[in-house]
């Protein structure tokens, strides 16, 4: 079963590591991590934007840079 939230990221990405720390600080619900490196379509869409937090139910996205407060606002926003 897939999660509602997805964090698109890359291997060896220091910004992605920072985003994971911010997600933990925000006490975000469980989310899937998807690496864009080996998927041409994801690379084209997210390659220069990662990390990106995606809400699969609403289609909303939160691009980096974000902090814990921005994540909480994003997670609490009505669909």
In short:
By secondary structure, the protein is α+β, with helices and mostly antiparallel strands. It is built from 3 helices and 4 strands. The chain has a single domain (5-64), classed as Glutaredoxin.
Over the alpha carbons, how many angstroms does the gyration radius reach? 12 Å
| DSSP helix fraction | 25-40%
Query: How would a crystallographer describe the biggest sheet?
Result: 4 strands, mixed
Enumerate the spans where pLDDT stays under 50 for 5 or more consecutive residues.
none
CATH class: Alpha Beta
Give the full name of the CATH homologous superfamily: Glutaredoxin
| CATH architecture tag | 3-Layer(aba) Sandwich
Count of DSSP-assigned helices = 3
Give the H and E element order: EHEHEEH
Strand fraction band?
A: 15-25%
- Physical arrangement of strands within the biggest beta sheet: 2-1-3-4
Integer average pLDDT = 95
| Whole-number total of structural domains | 1
Alpha-beta classification: alpha+beta
The CATH topology annotation reads as Glutaredoxin
Number of strand elements: 4
């Amino acid at each position: 079963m897939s999660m509602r939230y997805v964090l698109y990221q890359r291997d060896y990405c220091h910004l992605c590591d920072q985003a994971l720390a911010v997600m933990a600080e925000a006490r975000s619900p469980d989310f899937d991590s998807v690496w864009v490196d080996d998927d041409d379509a994801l690379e084209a869409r997210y390659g220069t934007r990662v990390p990106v937090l995606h809400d699969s139910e609403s289609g909303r996205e939160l691009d980096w840079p974000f902090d814990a407060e921005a994540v909480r606002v994003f997670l609490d926003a009505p669909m």
